[in-house]
# Entry
Amino acid sequence: MEMIKTAKGREALTDRASMSMSERRILILCDGKRSRQEIVSWLGKGALLVMDSLFEQGYLAIARSVPPSRPAVAAEVHMVAADSAPEQTGAPLSQFS
# Structure
């Protein structure tokens, strides 16, 4: 599971005195590209407690993965829609629904 910084987390990084070095390090590494397991492998199991704490305090959030777009499917849908579109005959569109 990948974590990302919230607005609160990004703001906290601008004030060096507001967080411990461990918290800052984890906030920097949580960029939505690295998994929790990867970060723990670098920083040790104690990083899990810090990540959980930062999450509970609103500094981190779970990154939502967005599936890649599928242009081929979009093109197919467009072609199907164009093929089944009513001719410009003046007929009401509700007739074709």
Observations:
- The beta strands are 2-5, 31-35, 60-62.
- Residues 71-83 form the longest helix (13 residues).
